[in-house]
Design brief:
The protein is mainly α. The protein has 7 helices and 2 strands, in the order ααααβαβαα. Helix 1 crosses helix 4.
Length: 191
C-alpha cells in the first residue's frame, strides 16, 4: 500500500469517527433536554397540585359542615369494613379510611392553609373508632390531634370542594357515574 492510500484511509476513518462523535453528542444533548423537560413537568405538576390543596383548604368549615355531618352520621350507621354486595369480599369498603380522609378534609384550616395541608391532621381518640371520632369532631368542633403524614392526601383537593354540594354517599355515587362513563369511553375507543 502506498503512502497516499494509507493517508486516504485515515481521512475516511477520521470522517466516520467524526460523524459517530457528532451523533453521540446529538443524542446526549437530546437526552439532556428530555431530563430537563421531565424535571420541569414534575415541578409544574407539583406546584399545581399543592395549589389545588391550598385552595381547598381556603373553603370555610361552615360551608362544608352540613355535608360532613351527614357523611359522619352515615359512616356511624354502616359497618366499618362492610361489603357492597353481601358475601362478596371483593366488594369490601374501608369506611375507616373514609372517616380519616373526611376528618383530614374537615380539619383543614383557612387561617393556616399551608400548615394544615402539610400536617394532614384529624381528630382521634383511642377508645373510639374513626367514624365516631369524625362525628364528634364535626358536632363539637374538636381540634385535630393526630397527624397522618405518611401519605399524600391529594384527593382532598377534590373531596373538600365536593363536600360543598354532596355528602359522602353523593360523592361515591358521582365517582361511580364518572367511572362508568370513562369505562364506556374506553370501550368505545377499543371498538
Amino acid at each position: 500500500m502506498s503512502f497516499f492510500e494509507i493517508q486516504g484511509e485515515r481521512k475516511e476513518g477520521s470522517a466516520v469517527e467524526n460523524r459517530e462523535s457528532e451523533r453521540a453528542e446529538a443524542a446526549s444533548h437530546a437526552a439532556g433536554k428530555t431530563v430537563l423537560r421531565a424535571l420541569a413537568a414534575f415541578f409544574v405538576t407539583a406546584a399545581i397540585l399543592i395549589s389545588l390543596l391550598l385552595a381547598s383548604a381556603l373553603i370555610p368549615k361552615e360551608a362544608i359542615r352540613a355535608n360532613t355531618l351527614a357523611s359522619a352520621e352515615y359512616l356511624c350507621e354502616t359497618p366499618i369494613f362492610g361489603t357492597v354486595i353481601g358475601g362478596v369480599s371483593a366488594s369490601r369498603i374501608d369506611r375507616y379510611a373514609d372517616a380519616i380522609l373526611l376528618g383530614i378534609a374537615w380539619q383543614l384550616d383557612a387561617e393556616r392553609p399551608l400548615e394544615s395541608v402539610m400536617r394532614a391532621a384529624y381528630y382521634h381518640k383511642d377508645i373510639q373508632n374513626e367514624n365516631r371520632n369524625l362525628l364528634d369532631a364535626v358536632e363539637r368542633d374538636l381540634p385535630a390531634n393526630q397527624e397522618y403524614l405518611r401519605y399524600w392526601h391529594g384527593s382532598i383537593a377534590l373531596v373538600r370542594p365536593l363536600l360543598l354540594f354532596l355528602p359522602l354517599t353523593g360523592i361515591c355515587a358521582l365517582n361511580g357515574v364518572l367511572l362508568a362513563a370513562l369505562a364506556l369511553v374506553l370501550l368505545g375507543l377499543l371498538i
